[in-house]
Structure formats: C-alpha cells, structure tokens
Amino acid sequence: MFTAGKGRRVAIGAVVVGAVIALSGCASGDPLADENSSSDGETLVVGSQQYYSNEIVAEIYSQALENAGYTIDRQFQIGAREVYLPEVEEGNIDVFPEYTGSLLQALDPSVTSGTSDEVYSQLVEALPEELSVLDPAEASDQNSWTVTQAFADQYDLTDIASLSNVTEPITVGGNSELQTRPYGPDALQELYGVTVAGFTAVEDSGGPLTVKALVDNTIQLTNIYTASPLIEANDLIALEDPDGLFLPDNIVPVVSDKVDADATDILNEISAALSAEDLVSMNAESVDEQKSSEEIATAWLTENDLLG
C-alpha cells in the first residue's frame, strides 16, 4: 500500500523528518470516511489508535497545540494501522502518536533488529513522501510476551527462549493482527521451537479482557505493552527479550505537511519531556483511577510547564 522512499531530509532536532506508515490488522469501518483535510491549514486533525495510552499522548499533543492557538479536530480511537495510516497519507489526519519499531516493521517486515537510534534512522529511510516523523521520546511502550507468575514458576520461564521449556501446547491470545506480526506465533515456533496449539482473538490490545483470559488460563501467552499497569497489578511476568525479538518502540509524532515549524517545535518539546516513568504513571491513572485522557494530559502538561 505504501511505497518506501529514500533520501529524506533528516534533522534530529526541530526539523521534520520524512516519514510514514503501514499496518497490520483488520477493521471493517472507516471512521474518517466523511472527513476532509482543511484546505486553509488552520485546523489540524489529531488522531489516535484504539488504545487508551495512545489516546493520552494524542490528547497531550492536542492540548499543547490548542494552547498555542491551533484549532484541533480530535479523531481518537480510530483503530489499527490498517485503518488510520491510509487516512494519514491521504491528508485526513495531520498528527498521530506512533511507535518507532512497530511502525518500521509495518513498513518493512524484514527488519528484525536494531538499537533505538538505528530503528529511528531506518524508519526515516523507509517512510513515504507524504509524511514526516519528528523527534522520538525517551518513553516507549514495548511489546512483550507475557505469562502469569504461576505459569512462569511451573516451567522456569525467564525469557522468551525459555518458552521452549513448556511441555504442554500453548494457546496464544491477543488482537487478531498479532497472528501476522513479525514477532508473532510463527516467530516463536521458528526461532525458539515453541509449540503453539492455537490462537484466541481478544480484541482489547492487552487490556482487561486479555488479562482475564490469561489469568483464567484460557490462554497461556499474550502480548501486553510493557507500560501497562495491568502487568504489576495482576502479578504477570513480561518475559525478557535478550535476542531483540521486539524492536525498540519509542513514541514519535507522525505528521503531515500541514504541521508548520511552530507546531513542530511544540511536538518536539513534548517528546523531549515525555519519560518512560511518565507514561507508566499516566497509564495507571487511566486504568486504576479511571481518569479521562483530558484530565491526565492537562496535569502532565502543567507539571512540565508546557502550557505557557
């Protein structure tokens, strides 16, 4: 769907980097089908995935831009990359929080390793002409293969490779698109000899339904993002990844050419301030305290003196 391009302008600071995106997942509707990009450049459309943590970051972007005088049209909870990336490319979305490694593998599934800096550089090279990526944040929301503490104790599981210790067939659960990810069940079988008995679709991106299926032993293995407070709250174990099966997933703004220099500076300031600890804390406020993304974003921006 997207064609990779080379020779983009790179500026690891306030300058926008050529970039964009591709996908992997299923969706039946197009929530932006009736939306058109503003022709006067005064309104910026900010989107988010159907994932509470991503929406929090999108809301941070939105409030900071509004505070600077931009008119923002929020298009949150859109869905998986298969849905929102074409909308970004077509100019229907102008700002979107993404994750460097996952985005890179969506564009180029052959990429299987790299440091954070290497992944970012490769992303710049792989992205289409229509979009750009700005500065990445320190904060990341890594993919992980996660099990219960009891299952880990039973089979002496510490890292992904140790899943080969398991003597019973393993049922993997997660979003449908997990089945085709470069790090998915096929990779577990091919790289580590893990016997996967089947796949159960649980469409909440590692949320409460996924955790319940894991704790109830309906599934034995799932993909949960490492910044999720559900891991600690439910005594789960995110298996270590010494082989780098998962690429670094630093949060990065993906933008259209409607995002001007001032907006670029604002988004880069957010990336510079957003730490891994901040992300975990904000996710906990959402999940444990049931705070809204608006409330969480305002508090974080105020604490970091980003509302002027």
From TrEMBL:
GO terms for molecular function: transmembrane transporter activity. Residues 1-29 form the signal peptide. Residues 43-303 form the ABC-type glycine betaine transport system substrate-binding domain. Gene3D superfamilies: Osmoprotection protein (prox), domain 2, Periplasmic binding protein-like II. One of its GO terms (cellular component) is ATP-binding cassette (ABC) transporter complex. SUPFAM superfamilies: Periplasmic binding protein-like II. It holds the Pfam family OpuAC. The keyword Ribosomal protein does not apply. PROSITE patterns: PROKAR_LIPOPROTEIN. InterPro entries: ABC_Gly_betaine_transp_sub-bd. Keywords: Signal. Transmembrane segments: none annotated. This is Osmoprotectant transport system substrate-binding protein. It comes from Glaciihabitans tibetensis.
